[in-house]
Each structure stands twice: as structure tokens, then as C-alpha cells.
Amino acid sequence: MRDWGFYAATLAPALLIGAAATAGGIWVWLALAWMTVAVALLDALAARRAAATEDGTEFPAGRRLSVALALAHAVLLPLGVAAVSGATGLGWAQRGGLFLALGLWLGQVSNANAHELIHRPSAGLRRLGVAVFVSLLFGHHASAHPKVHHRWVGSRRDPNTARRGESFYRFLPRAWRGSFRAGWRAEGDLLRRRDGRTTPLRHPYAVYVGGGAACLTAAALAGWAALLAYLALCLHAQAQLLLSDYVQHYGLERLEDGNGRLEPVSAAHSWNAPHPASARMMLNAPRHSDHHAHPAREFGALTIPEDAPLLPASLPAMGALALWPAMWRRVMDPRVAAVAQSRRAA
Fold first, then answer.
1. What are the φ and ψ backbone dihedral angles of 78, each rounded to 5 degrees?
2. CB-CB contact of 110 with 132 (8 Å)
3. CA distance 113 to 69
4. Number of other CB atoms surrounding residue 131 within 10 Å
5. Burial class (CB in 10 A: 0-12, 13-18, 19+), 168
6. Res 46: pLDDT
7. Residue 256, beta-bridge partner list
8. In this structure, what is the dihedral angle of CA atoms 217, 116, 203, 211, given to the nearest 10 degrees?
9. pLDDT of residue 85
């Protein structure tokens, strides 16, 4: 049943979005309802603690699902760009509904899948994940995430760790620019250690920037409306990935000793969400502490440690709350303080 849960939560909305882009009508609103109301209702009806303590067992079809989702992404992104730009004849309301539904799927499902792929040991799967991020004009994440975020999470050296009191609107440009630069430096240092020098064409950013330029050119050849639709969908998806980073590490800091050495990463440095419907939709990304402890562990095997900090609502719901900074701080700052106090007491 767990296999079918992951398939249903990720591929069913993809089919609805495909129908919405080609046929419009009721399919648009069904796709949008699935990505919003349906997932929230299923999370509310589920037994939260049972989901949180569920055994982490291997999901044999996990890699096949990841490949299927990447292929679905390759179909839905250009199809969605055409539909949102008006090329398929949808009205303005339907184009707006499709933009929201597809943007949510790209941001919450396809981003999560690309993240899963770049952590796989297979070079082919990693390249597939890179291709998904490049198509969303966010290719540098394939370098910055494993080489910077995983190393420096919970410290000021990680651009994607949100500081206590920092709003999402201040975090977003800082994290985007910071991760781009930090990933560039990390890859350049790796090339210098390996080859003794940095050759521009051997730098992974040549693929990220060149691939992004190719995608932009292809969209522009389809017309200005298609280019604008493509840029809007990419920004929508990027913002959601950064929302996930913002929520999952907000205010959680690693301690330093007198010599400036950081404590090891632990379960206390990530927020988790024990909500099964949204977790399956996001390939268990809300089981975030376990992912940081075991980056190579496949999504089906992730669990939530007993001592891990828990969000008061699902990851998508908390992402929506983060768009209201005053309410976000009212909800989360006391929880951040409680985690810090419990760590000092321990």
C-alpha cells in the first residue's frame, strides 16, 4: 500500500494537470483542488503520530517512480507553458488556475523528486535530477545543496538556513544569491583540488547556465507570452523550494566551540512534519532530520527521529503561513526558543 500511496500522491495530480492543460474546463479546478484542498484534508484526517513513527522500509519502486516523475516533468513543463501562455485556447481564469496547480506540482513534487535524484549514487539519476533543476532555471541547487547546505546547515555559512526573526521575503533573495555563489565556490575548489586549476567549460555551472539559457531561448522562440509564462512558472517553483528550506531550518542553529568548530548535525537542526499525505506527495521531504543524518538514504526509508522538532502543521501549510511574517513569528519563535532551551537543559 505504501507503494501506491507514493504513486497516487505524485502521479495522480500530474495526470490531472495534463488533462487541464489540454482540455481545460473542470480538469483545471480538479487539479488545483488536489494540490490544495484534497492534500490538506487527507493530512487532517490521518493519524499524525502513526505516520511519524512508521517504520522506514525500502520502497523497491522508488527509483522507477523518480524516473517517471522526471519524465512527467519533461512533458508537463512545456505543455503548461503553452497552456498558461494562451496557445491552447484556455480562458484567463483557467490559465490562472492551471498556473497555480502546475506551479504547486513543480514546486512541491518535481523539486522534491529532483532533490531525491541528485542524492542518488547513479550518475545517470543524478544527471536526470540536474536536468529537472536546470529546466526550472535553478541548476545551481544541484551543487549548492549537497556541497554547501548539507555541510554548513544550521550555521551562518549556509545561505539556506533561515535565521530566527528573518522573514521569508528577506530570506529568499539572500538564499538565492548566497547559494549560487557558495555552490560556484564549492565546485571551483573541488576542481582545483582535483585538477590543479579551474577550467570554465569543466565547471558544472557551465551546464547550469548554458542549459538555462537554452531553455529561455526555446521559450522565447515560442513568443513573448510563452517566455513570460515560463519565467513565471520557474519563479513559482523556485520560491516553493526556498520556502521548504526556510520552514525546515528556521531558527535552528548549530553550536560552536571555543575554536569555532561546529557541533555535528543532529535531529535538532531540522523541523519535521508527520503528515502522511503531503509527505508522500513530497517524497518524504518533511522527514528532514533523517535526510540530513543520512543523505544517501532513499525517500521510502526515511523516518522521523523521536527527538526531532515537529512543525505544528504540514510542510505545505507552514509554507503558506510563512508568507505572513507576523503570524509566522508568533507561531514559530516560541517553538524555536523551546528547542533551544531543551538543548541547553540537556
1. -65, -35
2. yes
3. 7
4. 18
5. buried
6. 77
7. 262
8. -10
9. 97
At 256 the pLDDT is 85
**Helix, strand, coil distribution of the chain in percent, nearest 5:** 70, 0, 30
Distance CA 202, CA 129 (A): 19
Rounded to an integer, what distance in angstroms lies between the CA atom of residue 30 and that of residue 14?
11
Cell numbers at 217, concatenated: 531561448
Domain range for 228 is 2-345
Which of the residues in the chain have pLDDT under 50? 1, 48-53
User: Within 13 Å, how many C-alpha atoms sit on residue 75's CB side?
Assistant: 14
Identify the sign of the CA torsion 17, 21, 27, 29: positive
Residue positions counted in the chain: 346
Residue whose entry in the numeric block shows the C-alpha cell 519563535: 333
pLDDT at res. 58: 57
Contact 321, 313 (CB under 8 A): yes
Report the Cα 235 to chain-centroid distance in Å: 13
Which residues touch 112 (CB under 8 Å, ≥6 apart)? 282, 283, 285
Quote the pLDDT of residue 61: 77
CA 203 to chain CA centroid, Å, is: 24
With CA atoms as reference, report the closest residue to 142 among 197, 198, 65, 206. 206
Say how many domains are in the chain: 1
Residue type, 272: N
